Structures are given as C-alpha cells and as structure tokens.
Amino acid sequence: MKRIGEKIHRFVCWYALLAAPIVIAFSRWADGARPQSFLGHLLNNAGFIWVLSLCYLIAALVFYKNFREGLLARLSGFRQRDEREQRVTGDVAKAAFLLTLAVEIAFLALSMTSFEVVRRADGHGVLNVGMGLSSAQTDLFAPNPEPAISVYLLPDGATIMKARLLPPVVGGVMMLLLFLQLLAFRLFARRGYGGALDE
Amino acid sequence: MTQKKLVISNRLRVLRAEKDISQEALAKEIGVTRVTINCIERGVYLPSLELGLALARYFGRKVEEVFIVEE
Fold first, then answer.
1. Is the pLDDT assigned to residue A188 strictly greater than 90?
2. Do A82 and B32 touch (CB under 8 A)?
3. Is the entire prediction scored with pTM above 0.80?
C-alpha cells in the first residue's frame, strides 16, 4: 500500500514538473478562449489536472519531509556523503541562513523607508526621510496599495513628492518570513543542541 | 566557553605510502570520499574520533601513531 502511494506521489510530481511547459504554452495559445475541438478539450482537462498536481506538489513540499529534503537538497547541491561534507554543508547552510536573514531585514527596512520632497513656491525645498510601520505592512491583502511615487500640488504653489523604495506589503511578507525562519531554526535546533538553546 | 585549540598533524601520507594504497582505495575502504582523505592528509580537515579510530584501525596502529599532537 505504501509502495503504491509512493508511486502515485512520484507520478503526480513528475506530471507537475514535465507537463508545466505544455500547459503554459497551451494557456498562452488558447488565451482564455473556450476550447472548441477535441484536442482543445483534452488539453484543457490536462491543464486542470496539472493545476491539481501543482497544488499537491506544493503541499508535499511543505508537509512531506523526505520529499522536501530530497528535492531541495538536489536543487541546492547539498552533499552529505561523509562527515566532512556534512560539516561543510552545516557551515554553508549557516552562512546562507544568516545571509537570507540579513537580506530580509534589509528589505523590511527598505519597505519601511519613505521619502518626501517638499518644494515651496519660493523655490526652497525640504527633504524628509522617514521610517515607520504602518497597517499597510501588516495587511497583506490591502485593496489599494500606495503608489511608489505620488505628487501633490498645494494651493499655495508648493509641490510635495512622496516616494517609497519598496511597497509596504513587502514589509509584511519579510516579517512573516523572518518569524518563520527563526521559529523553524529554533524548533529544529532544539533537539540538536540537547534542548538548551540559550545556554 | 572556548575550547582549547590543539595543533594536530598526521602521518597518513607516510602510512599510506608504506601500505602502497591510493587515496581513492583508502577512502573506499573507510567509507568516505577521496577528497576527505586528501583534506585530512593536508591538515585542512580534522576528522572525528570515529573516523580517526577507523583510520588507525585500518593501518593497525594506535591513534597517537597516526595523529600527533604538536606541543
């Protein structure tokens, strides 16, 4: 029973990977139109099954530990054939983990940064650089995201230009990723460190 | 807490020459990669106790005869 399950799992994963170019090419060609011919219906159904298989692939990546480790280890070129390679992998994983955290923190800071240039009617100007956390950063599904650059003309002739380096929603995603990565590391490391992470 | 660092060299290359065995063959016997044997010989990698014992046992020597702590 387990072997049958594994065979189905492997078939679905290969289908999700190999059928991807065909399905993408077909959806580009069909351009949203309803299929008319037999071949069109066949490809349409194949596309629907591909979407289901893709959902399965994503779920398997999250919940099926062996599959996740096998696939991602192959993608990232992990080698653990002996103790030296295991140690090198550990060092490399640590460096990559910390670099990713640093990049996420940088992106979080950039998403919180905004610029405001005020040009008064007399020709003088002011540049304001601000950092702040807004509700737009925690609401990942905000209906009207702020534009990257907005310009206002005031009645007294002054011009205000507000600009953001990154959309605020990036900050929310980065906070989520930071939290997940730190939590995952602490949870997985707990056993390895003998249960005492803060000693 | 910092671990006291010891300078450890090894006689692996000499022992391998005495036994006339290549890095590749030794790696296969021990169950590691050839690069690991090469790294140990060059002093780039310090093996675990388990691997150190396996190497010493393979050459029929004591661990201290394969790995030397330099004072």
1. no
2. yes
3. no
